Amino acid sequence: MKKDQWILGIETSCDETAVAIIKNGKEIAANVVASQIESHKRFGGVVPEIASRHHVEQMTIVLEEALSQANLSISDMDAIAVTEGPGLVGALLIGVNAAKALAFAHNLPLVPVHHIAGHIYANRLVTEMKFPLLALVVSGGHTELVYMKEHGHFEVIGETRDDAAGEAYDKVARTLNLPYPGGPHIDRLAHEGSPTIDLPRAWLEEGSYDFSFSGLKSAVINTVHNAEQRGETIAPENLAASFQESVIDVLVKKTERAVAEYKVKQVLLAGGVAANKGLRSALDKVFSNYPEIELVIPPISLCTDNAAMIAAAGSIMFEKGVRAELSLNAIPGLEIDLYND
Q1: CA torsion through residues 35, 41, 44, 48, sign
Q2: Quick check: 41 pLDDT over 90?
């Protein structure tokens, strides 16, 4: 009988301190996340130094809680997986050094994981992945289309050229005086309004799968400022609905076009903005027309940053023989295709 594989994952790339334990790459034994939203809310965004300090304070607490939930000890683990990058360098370093300490003290393999690979592998905690597949990754710092022909192989076929979708959401939310993080508030407001305002869609050059949301963000800001100068009032719910429709239209249509070109069996949604109800609904609607393609959307708890996704990706990397030395460092601008064989 095959022995169960236990991977402990650590994620500290931004403002969540997270530790999880995954069984056989697919089953969550524990998934603990300490959020810092309240600490950063008054600043309207994540303050890197504050994030790092919170990670230091929370790491041991979160680790002990995860082991307690799983009713396991470090000695039961087969490996320690940790986010190597991308992310805030100070925040990443807390997780990397905690992982190195655990690996050294307990003589365990250390497995480096790319943060975006983690978001993609959150879907494996829902259902088995079927190749070839396409992942639409939409988060605060990333908007990418990633083609995968097999486990652990990532080919970025489209990426953001300026603002990521989540970043644009936060900036537009600030313009509308909505609290941080802005994405959920825009999403909620959009469902109360109608897309009555004509806003641009950046399709870029023909055939490109890249994204650009900077012009859209600027168009929203200009629309608000011009209305203020004319003494007019714009219904914030209609502006939110118009902005969201513009973002989703580009994301969904480029995904649909890539699916046709790459002839994939599965489409995965990943990243923090994957929690957006409008985006989830639009993808559901489009891919209901493609019964031969499976659309996988993880539960909201697995869309935002967590360590279960890092352990799930780490499980595959561990099986592929990926290991890090104790000299492992945080790489804030790490490219995902560096993980390919």
Answers
A1: negative
A2: no
